[in-house]
Design goal:
Layout: H1 5-13, H2 23-38, H3 43-58, H4 68-73, H5 78-91, H6 95-102, H7 106-111, H8 119-127, H9 134-142, H10 154-169, E1 174-175, H11 176-193, E2 198-202, H12 203-206, E3 211-212, E4 214-221, H13 224-233, E5 238-243, E6 246-250, E7 256-263, H14 267-275, H15 278-285, H16 298-304, H17 321-325, E8 340-341, H18 355-365, E9 370-376, H19 388-404, E10 409-417, H20 428-431, E11 436-440, H21 449-461, E12 467-468, H22 486-495, E13 499-503, H23 516-521, E14 526-529, H24 541-551, H25 564-581
Parallel strand pairs: 4-7, 8-9, 9-10, 10-11, 11-12, 12-13, 13-14
Antiparallel strand pairs: 1-3, 2-4, 5-6, 6-7
Helix pairs in contact: 2-3, 2-6, 2-8, 9-10, 21-22
The structure holds zinc ion (2 copies).
Length: 582
Amino acid sequence: MPATDCEVLTILYFYRPNPMENKPVARTLRLLSQLMELHDENPFKIKSLANAAFKVDKLPYRISGKSLAEMEKIDGIGKSTATKIVELLETGSITELTDLISATPEGVVEMLGIKGIGPKKIAIIWRDLGIENVGELYYACNENRLVEAKGFGLKTQEEVSKVIEFRMASNGKFLYAQVDSVAGELFQNIKNLLPDAIISYTGEFRRCCEIINELSFLVGSSDVRSDVETLTQSDILQNITVKEHHVSGETVNGLLVDIALVNNLAFHYELFAQTGTEDHVKAVTGRISEDIKEADSEGAIYKQANLAYISPELREGDTFIEKAAQDQLPALITYQDLKGTLHNHSTWSDGVNTLEQMALYCQDHLKLEYLGMCDHSKSAFYAKGLSIERVLQQHEEIDHLNKKLSGFHIFKGIESDILNDGSLDYPDEILQRFDFIVASVHSNLKMDREKATVRLIKAVENPYTTILGHPTGRLLLSRKGYEFDYKKVIDACAANNVVIEINANPLRLDLDWRWHQYALDKGVKLSINPDAHRIEGFLDMHYGVLAARKGGLYKEMCLNAFSLEEIKKEFESKKQVINAHR
Ligand SMILES: [Zn+2]
Ligand SMILES: [Zn+2]
C-alpha cells in the first residue's frame, strides 16, 4: 500500500530508525521509487527499488541489524539499494529522496498516497492539468476534468473521488454536505429506539456550520437512565462510550457523534445551551436574572433576555444580539425565495449536460424562471474555455432556445478568468455581448495579499463585471484560498455595483459567511450560485442557502432571488451605465 501523507511526514521529519520495524524502511524506498517514476527517471532503477521495498517489508528479520555487506547479499536488494538503506538508517533520510521531495510540490507528494492512482497518472494530473494538491484534485473530479485527461475515464474519476472522500473523512472533519444524509439517518434510528423522546440536533450541525467536527444530538427523555441504556445497547454507532448522560461513538466513516440525554423539563434550556457558541449563550444568559433552566421553549429564553428569537444559524458569538435587541433581525433567505440560478457550465466548456438539458431541468424540476450560463472563458484551456468564435456560436444556440422555451429565459453569461493583471479574458466588443459576467480567479492562486487585492479590485472595477465569483478560491478542508484585503475588495464591489457570489458548492461556500454582514452593510448584493457542472449540481444551491442564512442574507439583497423581470432590469441598468461612460 502506498504511504499516506501522515506516513510521508513521519518519514520526512520524524524518522527515527526503529530496530523493531522494517516497515519504515520499506515505505521510504517505495516513496523514493514513486518520486523517481513521477520525475520520469530510469525505469530499471525504479523497478528494482520498488522490488527491494517489497522484499524489505517481507524480511523475517530486522534489516537494521545487518551490515552493508550483508544487505547487499539479500536477494532483490543489491549494492545501490543497500547503500541507500544504510544512509537512511544512519542519517534518517536519503539524499536522493530529499532532493526529489524538494523538486515536488508538497501536495503532489501527498497525492502519491492516494490509492488507485500511480505516479504516472499523478504526473499527468500535475503537469497536464496543473493540479497541485488533493483538494484541487477532488474539485477537478467534481468539475469532470479528469475524464478528458490521457489514460483516465469516468470510472477512474469516480474511484479517485471516492478515495479522496474517504481520506478527508480520516482527518475527522467533514463537510456539512457529507454529514447531511448520515445525520438524517441517525436521527431516524434514535427516533426508532426512543419513540417517546423529543430529539433535536444541536451544536455545529444545527448551526449549519460549513465544517463539522462532531454531530451532536439532544434527547429529552422521561427516563434518562433507561434511555441511555437503550442507546448503549444498540448498534446505531461504533465504539460506543457512556459518560454521565452522554452516549458517544462514531459512524462507519469515522464521524464523531454525541448524544446528550436530559430530562424532558430541561430540554429547551439545554437545546439553547448546546446549540449556540459559548459566547452566544453567555451573551444571552447575561441579560437574564431569573432561573430559566425549565423554559418551555427557546423563544421564551430569548424573550426573557429581551431579544427577538435568534435562528440557530445566527448563534455565533454576539454578532446578531444587537439586532435582536432592536427587533431588526433579517428575515433569512429560504430556498423558495430563489427564482433563478446564475453561474453554470454546460458541455460548451467542462460541463456534463447540454445547455438545453440544463435549462429544461431548471424549468421543469426546479421551477425556476431563468438560468444564467457561464461557461469558462478562453484562458481556461484545461476546462475547454470558449474561444471568441465559440462564444458567438453559443449565443446563437441560446437565442434559438430562448425562442423555444416559454416562461423561461437563458441569460448569456461567461465565467471570465481574471488574468494576472486583473483584466478580463475578452476584448470589450465581446464582453458587451453578454447579459452578465462572473469574474473569477482560476490561475496563479499563490499571490501575496497585496497583489491579490490589487488583482481583484481591478477586476471589480471593470465595468463589465457583474459578479465576483468564488472570491477566495478556497476548497474547504484542503485549500486555504489566497489572502486579500476583504474590506477593500468588498468596498470596491460597493463602489462599482458588483455582486459577490456565494459559491454554493459544499467545498467552496465562498464568500465565507463571516463576511456577509460586512458586504450587506455596504449595500453589496450577494448571489447564491451553484457553479453546476451537471444537472445534479443545481441542488448545491441548498447548501448555498444555508451558508447565506448563516451570514444573515435576506431575499431583497440576493441577486438570484430577483424575478425574471427584475433581474432583466438589473442587467439592463448595468449596461446603461457602461454605455453612458463610453
Ligand atoms: Zn470558477
Ligand atoms: Zn464555474
